[in-house]
């Protein structure tokens, strides 16, 4: 049996594509002050495309691509510098050369919706937020006194009734 070429996982950039994308990426020089070397840009591109393809959060990207903040920083920089726009233009040019694009008629469709949180769509709504705090039954099943409802939670009676606090107002008169 002959050896088969091992295929890269679907989120890896194939060699042929990397050869075409690499010239579109910004050139980075080594810092004259030293410091950490730059991360492998191919690995960063793999990570960015993984996040864009799967829709996961940056912090959920696998560690094999590098730190999530590094991936996000490069994504932001490349977006600002127009890397993805240039990549899109190159892909359109190539597709136009291979298949031909009818530039006289274009259509675009898309939808962005919030992901469902699970459960049934028509489940009964909870009445909990509309209940006042004093309507909930106490753990000891005793009744609350009616004056507790009027006073509010934990506020001393003297402050709720409009009585002035002596220490707070004694400084003003001095």
Summed up, the helix count is 7
Overall average residue pLDDT: 76
Give the amount of beta strand, in percent: under 5%
Uncertain stretches: none
Query: What does the overall shape look like?
Result: flat
What's the number of extended β-strand segments? 0
Determine the oligomeric state from the structure: single chain
Determine the fraction of residues in helical runs and give it as a percent range.
25-40%
Straight-line distance between termini = 99 Å
Largest sheet, strands/sense/barrel = none
Q: Kindly provide the radius of gyration, computed on alpha-carbon positions and rounded to a whole number of angstroms.
A: 31 Å
Helices and strands, in order, run as HHHHHHH
The secondary-structure class comes to mainly alpha
Structure write-up:
The protein is an all-alpha fold and 174 residues long. It has a domain at 15-27 and 36-98. 39% of the residues lie in helices and 0% in strands. It contains seven helices and no strands. The protein has helices at 15-21, 41-54, 68-80, 83-98, 146-151, 157-160, 166-173. Helix 2 (41-54) packs across helix 3. The longest helix is centred in the middle third of the chain and has 16 residues, at 83-98. The chain is flat, with a radius of gyration of 31 Å.
Which terms summarize this structure?
174 residues, flat, mainly alpha, 39% helix, 7 helices, single chain
């Amino acid at each position: 049996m002959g050896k088969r070429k091992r295929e890269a996982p679907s989120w890896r950039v194939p060699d042929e594509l990397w050869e075409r994308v690499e010239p579109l990426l910004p050139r980075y020089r080594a810092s004259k002050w030293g410091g950490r070397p730059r991360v492998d840009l191919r690995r960063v591109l793999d990570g960015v495309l993984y996040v864009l393809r799967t829709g996961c959060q940056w912090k959920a990207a696998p560690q094999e691509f590098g730190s999530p903040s590094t991936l996000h920083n490069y994504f932001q920089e490349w977006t600002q510098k127009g890397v993805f726009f240039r990549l899109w233009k190159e892909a359109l040019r190539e597709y136009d050369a291979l298949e031909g694009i009818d530039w006289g008629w274009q259509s675009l469709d898309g939808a962005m919706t919030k992901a469902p949180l699970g459960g049934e769509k028509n489940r009964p709504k909870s009445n909990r937020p509309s209940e006042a705090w004093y309507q909930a039954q106490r753990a000891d099943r005793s009744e609350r006194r009616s004056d507790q409802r009027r006073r509010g939670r934990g506020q001393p009676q003297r402050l709720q009734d409009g009585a002035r606090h002596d220490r707070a107002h004694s400084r003003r008169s001095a």
